[in-house]
Structure formats: structure tokens, C-alpha cells
Amino acid sequence: MQVFREIAPLQAHLKKYRNSPSTIGFVPTMGALHRGHLSLVEASRKESTVTVCSIYVNPTQFNNKDDFEKYPKTLNEDLAMLEKAGTEVVFCPGNEEMYDGAGRGLSFDFGTLGTVFEGAYRPGHFSGVALVVSKLFHIVGPDFAYFGQKDFQQFKIISRLVEELKFYIALRCVPTVREKDGLAMSSRNMRLNREQRADAPALYEALAMIKEGLHAGKKMDVLSKQALELCSDHHIELDYLALADEKDLSIQKEFSPDRSMILVVAGKLGGIRLIDNLAVN
Ligand code: AMP
Predict the structure, then answer these.
(1) Cα 22 to the chain's mean position, in Å?
(2) Which of 135, 165, 234, 237 has an alpha carbon 20 to 30 Å from 189's alpha carbon atom?
(3) What's the CA-to-centroid distance between 223 and ligand 1, angstroms?
(4) Global pTM?
């Protein structure tokens, strides 16, 4: 496994994979890796000649200074995990390399797709995500890029980005990897204390309960109320819990099986913010 901190040597190294039939698979991450990240690496390894994983905690996508400063950093463990998983190339740049005075001021507007749900609670977040992902796509020049279903709205934003900016990259959405009790794996989970960790699976439980109820013909508002109670019993302060159209993330009052819909949720346990989602169809 080769580790690069700078763009020029990374690009020189990747040159030999640029021509067909070789393909470059790319997995962008912010580190503090877990099995969810590794499932993206695995998907890339199955499909691409060489897998490049980036580790970079991007400052422009954090609207909350405390969240940015407390974001877990475990570079040595991350590198060991990536090596074991068979990753060929790691790119872990510093801020100077990514934002050398340029680009910080650029912003993206995705319309309602960028202002609902996460966009409403994290102003500027998706603009920062789009900025760093654009930079990384240009630097790495992948054929395939892998993202998690866990951050479904982010996947929709990046799909739009690729479409609008004509990136010649095929995107893959990889299913959410969960702990045995249903909690979606997340780098932020390592900040939960014992009590919070025991309460956290209620977020997924609430989604699963609503999904079952919708299929049994129950009303969304009744199910939402029950889910709210379940979360509050587990000390989770919800930011949002909604049923949305999978295509454009528009909020839906009721489930109709002839349209693809998704349940989305975000909540805080102590100061730690967790998100999850579940396809209903
Ligand atoms: P992050 O390091 O949190 O920015 O995540 C990097 C990538 O890993 C994103 O595409 C996430 O959606 C994906 N990811 C994070 N958690 C999971 C999970 N539990 N299952 C699958 N993919 C995930």
C-alpha cells in the first residue's frame, strides 16, 4: 500500500492506471474508519484495478466548530485497516495541499436538495462536501467512486454534482453497514458513552417500526408520534424524522407503494449528532 500526502506524486503514481482496460476506484472518507468504510473499499476492489482511498477531514463541510475539532482522528489505525483490506493507494493530504489559498470561497447551490434535512440543520454543509469532492475527483480522476447509503442525501448531492459538472465517473451507492443491534456504523459512534451507546439503536428501531407500520397500512402521522416517543424514551433529541421521495427528497405525507420512498432521521444524543435512513419499498 502506498501513502501519498501530496497531489503531484499521487498523480504520477496513478498515471499507469489511466488507460483502458485499467480502472481506478475511489473511496473518499474522513478517516476514523470502521467496517462501513471497508465495505466501500471491498466494493471498489471487486470492480476496479486499483483502489484509492482518501482520508481528509474537510473543514469547509463543518458548520459547527466543536464537531470539527472533536471529529475523531485515528490515522495509524486507519492505515492498518486499509492495508489489511487490500487498498493499494491512500491519499491523506493536509489543509495546505487541499486549500492553498484557493477554493475556500467557492460555493455550490443545489436548490431544495441541499436545503432540506441535513442542509437545514447544517447550513453550508453540502456546499463544502461538493467543493472537496470536486477537488478530490479532479486530483484522483477515478472511473468509479463509492459512497454509502448511510449518507443518502450526500449521495444525491454528489450524483447531481457529477451530472452538472460532467464528471466522467460512475457512482456506486453501497448499503449501510450496521452493528448487530441495528445502529448504523459511524465514526461519531466512538464518541458515545456507554449509556448513549445503549440508547443509540432506537434511531434505527424507530425507522424499522415506521416501515413495518406503513406496509401494514398505518398512517404516517400516527407512526411518527410513536417513533418520537421511542426516541425521547432513549434520550434522543430529534432534528427531523420524515418520509421522503427517493428521487428528489421531497417530503411525503403518506406512503404509496408505487413510488420509491425513504425514511430519513437525524437526532442528537448528548452533543453527538447521528443520522440514518431506510428505504421503505
Ligand atoms: P465519512 O468518513 O463519514 O465521510 O464517510 C465516508 C464514506 O463512507 C461515505 O460515503 C459514507 O456514506 C460511507 N459510510 C459511512 N458509514 C457507513 C456505513 N455504516 N455503511 C456504509 N457506508 C458508510
Answers:
(1) 27
(2) 135
(3) 28
(4) 0.97
**Alpha helices for 49-180 (secondary structure H):** 65-70, 75-84, 95-98, 112-115, 118-121, 125-140, 152-164
Residue 6 CA to ligand 1 center (angstroms) comes to 24
Does position 44 have pLDDT exceeding 60, yes or no? yes
All cell numbers assigned to 56: 481528509
Give the ligand 1 atom nearest the CA of 154. 12
State which H helix or E strand residue 39 sits in. Answer: helix 35-47
State mean pLDDT over 243-250: 97
CA distance 241 to 276: 10
**Are the CB atoms for 134 and 106 separated by under 8 Å?**
no
pLDDT at 211 over 80: yes
| Count of alpha carbons within 13 angstroms of residue 264, beta-carbon side | 24
**% pLDDT > 90, the chain:** 95
Q: How far is the CA of 218 from the centre of ligand 1 (A)?
A: 32
Q: Say if residue 31's pLDDT is above 80.
A: yes
Q: Which positions are catalytic? A: 37
CA distance 183 to 265: 12
Rounded CA-CA distance 279/264 in Å is: 9
AA identity, residue 273: R
Stronger pLDDT, 49 or 101, i.e. the higher one: 49
